[in-house]
Design goal:
Largest interface: A-B, 30 and 31 residues
Helix content of chain A: over 70%
Strand content of chain B: under 5%
Number of strands of chain A: 2
Largest sheet of chain B: none
Number of strands of chain B: 0
Helix content of chain B: over 70%
Largest sheet of chain A: 2 strands, antiparallel
Radius of gyration of chain A: 19 Å
Order of helices and strands of chain B: HHHHHHHHHHHHH
Shape of chain B: globular
Number of domains of chain A: 1
Distance between the termini of chain B: 34 Å
Oligomer: heterodimer
Amino acid sequence: MMRYVRLLGVQLRASFQLAMQYRVDFLVGGTMSLFWLTWNLLPMVILWRSRPAIAGWTFPEALLVAAWFTLLRGLLEGAVQPSLIAVVEHIRKGTLDFVLLKPADAQFLISTSKFEPWRALDALGACGMMWYALHALGRSPRPMHFAMALALTVASAALLYALAILVVSAAFWVVRLDNLIYLFNSVFDAGRWPAAVFRGAWRLLFTFVIPLALMTTYPAEALLGRLAPSTLGLALGGAALFTLAARLVWLRAIGHYTSASS
Amino acid sequence: MSLRRALRAYPTLLRIGLAEAVAYRAEFLVWMLSMTMPLVMLALMKTMADEAPVGRFTAATFVSYYLATLIVRQMSGAWVVWELIREIREGTLALRLLRPIHPLLGHSADSLAALPMRALVSLPVAVILLVTTGGSRVSHDPVVLACFVASLFGAWLLNFAVSAMIGTLGLYLESSISIWELWLGCFMLFSGYLLPLELFPHWLERLARVLPFAYLQAVPVEMLTGLHTRASALRALAWQWTYAAAAVTAMLLLWRRAVKRFAAYGG
């Protein structure tokens, strides 16, 4: 276990040094992600301008959901996807051999191979949004609700990672994957809206198949003190189950890998 | 002149492009599926309209608006920028330059050849549009409908020219993809892809109407859904084609200058 923690430290340091090498990129990337942060809020501002609440969500409340969305997207694009995209290249070129040969878990090595540190700004922006939303609502969350939201955030991070692993596992069967990642991102984008705005089939899809509701809406509801403890339990259990399933699928998928070299 | 030769070769290029699109159909389908954003927005706006109409938009107007948006996006999108950047980076652009035909013309054939496949995706959407709205939300004026078809091609041309131009910038810049992302971001907001322009604050709508983005989405969509009169449709079409012609000219000029910077490293 300690060995993996140390390995993670090494991988993180390498990513950070790599990022610092391209300082201009670093600055441009940081500025751009702040720009997108505000830009993405514009549709929300336009919609909530016309009425005080949509599907029972006022603007500050919906802003909380958007904050969680921003946080998770930063995590997805900064910590999960950069390294998983590399897997696709590895599979295509057959260089996954070199990863599999190393004396550590392949999934761990692959998942931690690349980070984009400037994405941390997204997390900062998300915190700013949460602060503003709570300020506008004129209340501070109770410690209990705060803890629930925190637990759900961890669960959503695990879920997001599990989903990404599932998508990447598909790369062992379908080779061209940049498309699948693009699809994943475009579906994930629906998570910026409170789940209550979706009805019928959409609601089912976003709750159970692609649990976007769990990832962005539930934490916001927990912070607002609206989430039932039983839902919290179900959500945590579901997240654990999903992560386990992703691990199993990954192990199966890796069995399918046929080296392309020699 | 090589233009005649290019025209003679064009049908063959289209056939090759279609064969490629059919060969990679799984990828193609995934790519098409990733354009579900209008459906998500539709779900959201329908909920809103069920609570109370938004401006002059009711739930039914939103259904027709977003389904039309989906059709227009499918039928007029162009992603040549990715191909160009890859060819520049990997040096395979050299192969295209060797052909006795303008490389961008070749790319345009690839892009156009995917249209039958894209039509296959849009056709069900169009049928749903007609059935759910009983045809009452679709323009009946043949002139406006003709304008719509012409505007689809104009939108494709404008999309293609900008996409190719940003791809060509890859010969000058290391990360022209971020410019493409910037363009896409502006497109999402200002083209009416996410929200109908009418719902914007007045000054923002006025701004969006002047920018080229509206001619990529909002204008064809409004023609199809009958929000245009004959006169306004023709006027919008003229503007769109002006934009498209300007973009194509700029693309060709840029290409002629930029291609001199291309260097392929071979073994």
